[in-house]
Queue: 2 jobs
Job 1
Amino acid sequence: MQHLTVLGSTGSIGTSTLDVVARHPDRFRVVALTANSQVDLLFKQCEQFKPDYAVLLDEAAAAGLRRCLKDAGISTEVLCGVEALEQVSVLPEVDAVMAAIVGAAGLRPTLAAAQAGKKILLANKETLVTAGNVFMEAVRASGSALLPIDSEHNAIFQSLPHDYRGDMKRSGVSKILLTASGGPFRNTPLAELHDVTPEQACAHPNWSMGRKISVDSATMMNKGLEVIEAHWLFNASADDIQVVVHPQSVIHSLVQYVDGSVLAQLGNPDMRTPIAYGLSWPERIDAGVVPLDLFKVATMNFVAPDFERFPCLSLAYQALRAAGTAPAILNAANEVAVDAFLNRRIAFLDIPRVIEAVLDELPVNAVTCLEDVIGADAEARSAAQQQIGNLAGARETSVPAPARRAAPLHP
Ligand code: NAD
Ligand code: MG
């Protein structure tokens, strides 16, 4: 029996995780569930999984959940605040932690779980992007098992030799091929990109995901963050990682070997596959996923990424090469810019502008401890807010933007 904490249980990855868990009551027991503020869904999850603890960030939401649980006669203890996220990640009875909080907010509890030697199911890519060396050092020191849940990294993990120890040369690996769908705007005329709406950006052609990662997929920042994630997970340099646009999202990534072999993992685009593999590794369990029908897929295409259309991808490669605090700055500026876009404060094409300006403005320092990352993150957030304010000010004094398009822009 594996005892689990699910950080971010009400999100897209969190609910998919609980879907897999519910299929195997003989294998998994949920010890703790956490969410930002979604009382209703967290209550339903508590009713179904009867965890020992439920954590909400918001005090008023926590009080609401406590009342609902009491009325229903459920004995789950409700905790509140960021410290509680760490607390439920290091409980002695917990074997594995699903890290599925979105954004840099997931860093501290995920790091705490690694320091405590828990098995980590890592969906929160921002942990590796912002604090890759600190996190990987914690994993090494405690001997944690680290299972990548991001579908591409899970595919690479499955395609590498089972005893891979982070030495590509010794393992005969010549390249990591990271596939990308290209998102909803792969073929949208460039002139129309300025006016795309949050709804259009969140309408991913193949995957159903949270809003932040959906926008990241539309700008291809998601792939940029994943290049940095792959760097830390597999000890691969920026030159060792090739992004391949594959619009069908059937091949989830590939590993190229020196003898000419290329190994890949394929499947329908459903996050329950990598989640189930992470949960049951090295075994395999039913994930409730529809089997891949190759006759239905029929055709698979591959093209090189368009760095002009997707400047966020270039910015991420640049940040990886600059190293130190650069990826944390990139990530924080991106989180602020995406939030401003989702709240209609800036246009879609402003997202890379804000990030580039912040990367140009701030110095890059070495990362030796978590505080270095947290300092760079805070500085980048305030610089990004400043840039957004400047952009909004400039827009108010210029010609009004053209009317927004109503129809969704699908490839
Ligand atoms: P989501 O927005 O659907 O869910 C986020 C979860 O985190 C929710 O439970 C929310 O309550 C919680 N949360 C949000 N802000 C928080 C905060 N400040 N403190 C504590 N909890 C907070 O996100 P998602 O799409 O499930 O993505 C989760 C993570 O997994 C992200 O890092 C994303 O990049 C990664 N990921 C997601 C997918 C996917 O298919 N959705 C695929 C690969 C990787
Ligand atoms: Mg991914």
Note: Residues 150-152, 226 surround magnesium ion (ligand 2) (CB under 6 Å).
Job 2
Amino acid sequence: MKPSVGIVGWRGMVGSVLLQRMQAEQDFAHISARFFSTSNVGGQAPLGAGVLADAFDIDALAACDVILTCQGGDYTQEVHPRLRAAGWQGYWIDAASSLRMNADAVIVLDPLNRSVIDHGLETGIRDYIGGNCTVSLMMLGLAGLLEAGLVRWITAMTYQAASGGGAQQMRELITQMGAAHAATADLLADPASDIMEIDATMSATLRSDALPTEHTVVPLAGSLIPWIDRDLGNGMSREEWKGHAECNKILGRAADAQIPIESLCVRIGAMRCHSQALTVQLTEDLPLERIETLIAQGNEWVHLVPNQREASMRELSPVTVNGSLQIAVGRVRKLAIAPGMISVFTVGDQLLWGAAEPLRRMLRILVERG
Ligand code: HSE
């Protein structure tokens, strides 16, 4: 019999991308899907799947073998404990971060941690949580080096897209771009206008109330925001903390065998691709060609971009990678700072491999396991 899968949060951005991918991979042929809603109970479910069930109805949820949720952390915190308290033994697959670091949860990124997932399934773990987008995308890009045990430590300087902050930040970014252009359009139309005047007008516009900043807090268009997620009070953002904590958990590394990972996370005006400038200290001073081969062979999604100007500009770009499962990896260079130290630049779609795809694949693992 096909497993019954309750899908929650399918209308949001990650949920929509997830549904598209599930349709593209014909996942629905292998499951009996029931769609839940927090706001439109009784409404029409997508894909002709009857009517929407109540996402807060514990009995209805408990009738599912698997719950797949992109509804967000507040929903998880409210519903997951109640469902477990009611004795539900099904599998909970979640895009939100709330349960990630729990001892009885596995962070899923199967191209790198299939053995951790399988061990979890064999030992009765029932919560499978998608990782932070930045972490998953970095790990897929460096998979060949990580799996060969060649990574001593990593620093990640990130360039994170607006989508990571949610759909409203994406909309606001474009509106900010429009307002900035509108304020300078007359000057731009005049080839003889003074660039200093254009700059002054632009700057005054970015600092004024003309720009909506309800969701980005400060302007993102024409600027950047060097802080993502909560302030942990120790000089670190929660996004930066996740780099080390989640990567090591995904790899199943013991406390005394951790790979140190430090980050500085920055929001930029890209739509949905997160980029990262990585410095990696390898455990061996390998030849560059060997390093490139290992990276390129890391998994089928890595696209190694030659470290050349034209190729880097065109292929190692959030614009190019947007909407694809490709993980572009380039700017691979040995650094003069120390033997075995390299630079790497990665670009990946934050909604696909950064969010929806690991969840979709986890569901498929469950389905194939029977
Ligand atoms: N926290 C990430 C960001 C997205 O703000 O870009 C979710 O993993």
Note: The CA atoms of residues 180 and 202 lie 6 Å apart.
